[in-house]
Amino acid sequence: MSDVDFDVVIAGAGIAGLALARGLQRLYGDAVRVLVLERDCSLSARSQGYSLTIQQGRQALAFLGLWDTVLAASVSESNGMTALRSDGTVIWEHHNKTAHKNKNKYIPRELLRKILHDSVAPGTIRWSTTLTGFTRQSASESDSQRCAPPPAAGYQQLLRVEFTEIHPSSTTTSTTTTTTTTT
User: By the 8 A CB rule, do 164 and 172 touch?
Assistant: First the structure.
């Protein structure tokens, strides 16, 4: 994709950003062109924290078409919750003795992020890139306002997104312009 081919620009390739990109691509296919800007240089550039308990997220993951993949990748299950100190001693425990059929699934954040990463279309993520600002400009006017409130529903507008691509030896600034419709 060139720098002017995007309908939606998402800042951050974390779990939420990748889930949004996956959802838009799944719902609209090629009709909505999505770009995810991520400051990290790769998927494995930094640790993503501990495991997540998948409880209410099942419906969202099913909508994204990823529930079976996440279910197969979940590393453990439990009927309750336990909070531990860094030395492993138990601070608090709660076990639901009646929920034996509906055990909680646990998955490492990094693994869930990888599943989401692998589910978006190739070229969706622009690594080593930082969002530096945006400017809205109406399609019928030449003046623009930086971070202005959105216009009335259904109003055609241009959105200029500014971002910096970070390379080991130099920094390059690029500008993306896309047309969106506010609803």
Answer: yes
pLDDT tens, position by position, 112-169: 999 999 999 999 999 998 888 777 665 555 444 444 444 444 444 555 666 666 655 4
Which of these, 59, 49, 54, 56, lies nearest to 71 by C-alpha position? 54
Where are any strands of DSSP class E within the chain?
8-11, 34-37, 51-54, 76-78, 80-84, 90-95, 104-108, 125-126, 129-138, 144-146, 156-166, 171-181
Each residue of 83-100: b (16+ CB within 10 Å) or e? Answer: eeeeeeeeeeeeeeeeee
Residues counted in the chain: 183
Output the pTM of the full model.
Answer: 0.69
- Indicate the SS3 state at residue 17: helix
Closest CA relative to residue 133, chosen from 160, 166, 151, 158: 160
Name the nearest CA neighbour of 179 among 26, 20, 8.
Answer: 8
Extract the tokens encoding 176: 């993306």
